[in-house]
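Progress note, sequence design subtask.
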């Protein structure tokens, strides 16, 4: 299972929990699993968060792979323009 670390932006959905283990093989799977566990979190993550998977940052990457021993950090998306 991947180890997920969520920042304070997600605590309203997780009841303050900041770390959990989730079974997922892609970012899309992770979003769906988190939403099933914490209703509303999936949509919030999809719109506002990026992912650092094993130290590499991914934005809008539904199909990025997640290994069974990956560490995934949820981080705010970086805006620009």
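Output:
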């Amino acid at each position: 299972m991947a180890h997920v670390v969520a920042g304070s932006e997600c605590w309203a959905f997780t009841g303050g929990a900041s770390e959990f283990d989730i079974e997922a093989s892609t970012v899309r799977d992770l979003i769906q699993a988190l939403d099933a566990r914490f209703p509303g979190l999936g949509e919030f993550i999809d719109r506002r968060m990026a992912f650092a998977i094993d130290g590499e940052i991914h934005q809008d990457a539904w199909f990025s792979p997640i290994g069974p021993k990956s560490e995934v950090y949820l981080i705010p998306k970086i805006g620009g323009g």
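The beta strands are 2-6, 19-22, 49-53, 56-58, 71-76. Work on this subtask will continue into the next period as scheduled.
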